[in-house]
Amino acid sequence: MVVSPEHQLAARSSLVIDDFHRQHFLLTEKNCSYRTPFHQSILKKGADALTELEFHSVEAIKQCAVAGLGIALLPEMALKEDLRARRLVALPWDLSDVSFSAQMLWHREKWITPSMAAFFEIAKSELKVI
Q1: What is the b/e burial string over 81-101, where b = at least 16 CB atoms within 10 angstroms of the residue's CB?
Q2: What percent of the chain shows pLDDT beyond 70?
């Protein structure tokens, strides 16, 4: 979870569930693989409801967060440059109970292009491969 450096929660060293009351969550569409586990996790921790703004674009979510419009929930790999440049800051909230899986499949008898091989290598280096 990330916010603009000027957001009221940005400078906090710890958060409690009540800190999210009246906050806007900037989220991907409902069928996104990490949105549902996040939603279930935060409700288990005591949130009674979330004010959600739904987007179909990761970049739109990031730009809204940079503009101070709410709390964005996005994968770290989508945020690396914005976090490094301090356009966004990570909130101190434990999301260790949120996990999801992704799979990459290819036909073993088909030729793998150099571009595909490069993509597989980048994915392996960036993602936790099991």
Answers
A1: ebeeeebbbebebeeeebeee
A2: 97
